[in-house]
Amino acid sequence: MTRRSCAIYCTGIVCAHLLIVGIALVVAQVFQTMIHSRLKKEITLTEKSQVFEAWKNPPPPVYMEYYFFNVTNPGVFMAGGKAAVKQIGPYTYREYRPRENVTFLENGTKVYALNPKSFVFVPEKSAGNPEVDILTTVNIPYVAVMDQLNSYSFFVRPFVSMYMNSLGVELFINRTVHEFLWGFKDPLLTKIHSMKPDVDEYFGLMWKKNGTHEGEFVFHTGEENYLDYGKIDTWNGLRQMSWWSSNQSNMINGTDGAVFHPLINRNELLYIFAADLCRSIHLSYVKDVDVKGITAYRFAPPSDVLMSPKDNPTNAGFCVPAKDCLGTGVLKVSICREGAPIVVSFPHFYQADPAYINAVDGLNPNKEEHETYLDLQPTTGVPIRACKRAQLNVILKRVKGFPKTRFLNETIFPIMFVNETATIDDESASQMRTLLLIVTLVSNFPLLIVGMGIILLLVLVVLFCRNRQKKTAKEDTAYTQVSNKPEQPPETQASKPAKNGSYIAMSPVEAEKC
Q1: How many domains does the chain have?
Q2: Alpha-carbon distance 146 to 160, whole Å?
Q3: What's the rounded mean pLDDT across residues 2-6?
Q4: What is the pLDDT of residue 154?
Q5: Which residue has the higher pLDDT, 12 or 159?
Q6: Alpha-carbon distance 259 to 376, whole Å?
Q7: 101 domain residue, yes or no
Q8: pTM
Q9: How far is CA 346 from CA 114, 179, 200, 355, 361, in A?
Q10: Closest C-alpha among 74, 157, 30, 109 to residue 443
Q11: Region entry Disordered: which residue ranges (predicted)?
Q12: Which of 509, 486, 437, 432 is CA-nearest to residue 43?
C-alpha cells in the first residue's frame, strides 16, 4: 500500500469517527446538560458559591434619582381649578445596600439576612442643590390628619380645622427638597406628639430610612431546587400578608429583585416582592437587548399588573375594603402604610387611566423614561441593568368639617417619583463576557467536532479525486512517439536498418514482411 493510499484510509477513518461521535454528542446534548448541571449547582446562596459574595456585597453602583412635582398654582387648585405641576430634579444619591447578619438555616437550604440601605448625595449627577431648592407641594401631615378624622364625629372636625388654622397650617407647604425628603419638624405633628408621644414630630418621605432596612428576610439558597434560588421564604416572619382582601393578593412571591435563577427562558413570568409596595408583582419578557457586549433578556411589568379589576379580575384582591377599587394604573397602599391616603403608580401615571393624567397639567408619560424593567443575562440569571421607577401620590378630596377643602375636585395628586438604577460595572462585565465565552465554547464543542469531521470529509474527497486522476494518467502513458525529422523517400528508408526504439510505426511493406 502506497503512502497516498494509507493517508486516504486514515483520513476516512478519523473523519467517520469525528462525525459519528460529534453527531451523537449533539443529539444527546451531553455538554449542554453538563454545563446546565454545573450552573444549577454553582449558582446558589452558599458560602462556597462564587455568586454568594456578589449577593452579599453587590458590586454594581446603585443610584437613586428623586424627581419632584412642584405645584405652580396652588391657589387655583384650592379654588376648584386644575392643578399644574412642573417636574424638578433629579436629585441623585448613591445607594449602598450590603447584606448584614447573614445566617444560614436548615442545613444551608435557607439564609437569613438584613438589607440596610444608606444614601450619599452625588452633586455631579444632580440637577440642583436639595438644601437650597424650594419645593411647593402637598402638606401630607395635614392630609393624614383629615383622613384619620373621617372616622370621627362631624362635630369634632370643625374644631380641629380651626385649631389647625390657628397654627398657620395650610394644605400646601413650601420646603426645601432636602427637608421634604429627609425630614423636618412639622408644627402640626409636634402638637399631636405632645398629646400622643408615639406620633413622631418629624416628617419626611425618607425620614428614618437612611441606614435602615425594609424588614427581615429569609431566602431560599437554591440548594434543593435551582428554580428557588433567591426566592423569599419569609418576610418579617410572614409567608403571607394580611392587608389585602384575597389570599392570592397576600402571597409573597418571587425574589427581592437582586437575583434570579439561572437558565431563564423568554416564556416565563418572573416575580418580585416589593416591600415598599406591600405586594408582589410579575414581569414578562419584552425583547433582547445588548448591555456592554452582553446579550440580555428585558423583562418589564405588563399593563395588567396595575389594571382595574374590571379588566383584570385577579386584581380585585387589592381593593380594600373589598370592591372599593381605584382605576387602572394606580394602587392604594395606605392599608399597609399608616397615615395619609397614599397611592402608588408608575411615573407620570404611565400605563394608567387617561383620567388621572388629564386631571393635572404638566404630566407627560412615556415608555423610555417611565417604564420599570430588568435586563437579565439568561444563562446565569444575573441582572445586567435595572431601572425601578415608582411614583408617590396622595388623594386630595373634600372633607366635611374642613372649609379649605370645600372647592377641591377629587384628584390623585402626584408628589414625586424615584428612578432606582443599576448597571453592571466594566470589570464585572468583562468577567461575565469571559464566562459566557467559555460556556459557549464548551456547550458547542460537539459542533466543533462535527465541523472538523466535515473538513476532513472534504479533504478525503480531494485526496480521493487526485488519486483517481493519477491512476488514469498512468494508464494513458503507453503512446506512439512521433519523429520530428522530415519524411524521406521510401527507398532511402528501406536502405537503412531499422533502429529498435526509434520508430514503432512501420511502413506497409515492412508490416507485410513481419
Answers
A1: 1
A2: 9
A3: 69
A4: 81
A5: 159
A6: 9
A7: yes
A8: 0.82
A9: 27, 24, 29, 15, 17
A10: 30
A11: 473-514
A12: 432
Compare 48 and 317 and report the one with higher pLDDT: 317
The C-alpha torsion from 204 through 116 and 371 to 315, rounded to 10°, is: -90
Residue 500's pLDDT band (cuts 50, 70, 90)? very low
Residue 512 pLDDT: 41
How many residues are present in the chain? 514
Distance of alpha carbon 44 from alpha carbon 47, whole angstroms = 9
Three-state secondary structure readout of 163-208? HHHHCCCCCEEEEEHHHHHHCEECHHHHHHHHHCCCCCCEECCCCC
CA neighbor of 351 nearest in space, from 306, 390, 312, 416: 306
Q: Is 385 in contact with 423 (CB distance < 8 Å)?
A: yes
Distance, in Å, from the CA atom of 225 to the CA atom of 169, rounded to the nearest integer, reads 57
Highest mean pLDDT among 7-21, 24-38, 428-442: 428-442
289: exposed, middle or buried (C-beta count within 10 Å: 0-12, 13-18, 19+)? middle
Local confidence band at 508 (pLDDT 50, 70, 90 cut-offs): very low
Radius of gyration of the chain from its Cα atoms, rounded to whole angstroms: 40
How many Cβ atoms are within 10 Å of 462's Cβ, its own excluded?
Answer: 11
Per DSSP bridges, beta strands 411-423 and 118-121 are unpaired
Q: What is the pLDDT of residues 335-363, one digit of tens each?
A: 887 778 999 999 999 999 999 999 999 99
> HSE-up of 197 (CA within 13 Å, CB side)?
0
Cell triple for 430: 468583562
Within a domain: 456: no
Apex 228 CA angle, 307 and 239, nearest 5: 65
Q: What's phi and psi for 392, nearest 5 deg? A: -100, 130
Could you tell me the three cell numbers for 96?
449602598
CA–CA separation, 119 and 133 (whole Å): 19
Give the H or E element holding residue 385.
strand 383-396
The verdict on residue 38 lying in a domain is no
Let me know the angle formed at the C-alpha of 474 by 472 and 479, rounded to the nearest 5 degrees.
110
Distances (CA, A) of 258 to 44, 88, 308, 363, 375: 13, 29, 29, 31, 12
Calpha distance 452→446 (Å, rounded): 10
Distance CA 411, CA 143 (A): 13
Q: Rounded to whole angstroms, how far apart are CA atoms 62 and 69?
A: 23
Convert the pLDDT of each residue in 268-324 to its tens digit.
Answer: 999 999 988 889 999 999 999 999 999 999 999 999 999 999 999 999 999 988 888
CB 264 within 8 A of CB 292: no
Handedness of CA 45, 218, 387, 420 (dihedral sign): negative
Asked if residues 117 and 215 have their Cβ atoms less than 8 Å apart, the reply is no
- CA distance linking residue 170 with residue 163, whole number of Å: 12
Q: What is the largest CA-CA distance in the chain?
A: 157
Asked whether residue 410 is assigned to any structural domain, the reply reads: yes
Domain coverage including residue 159: 60-424
- Using the Cα atoms of residue 263, residue 268, residue 269 and residue 271 in order, give the sign of their dihedral: negative
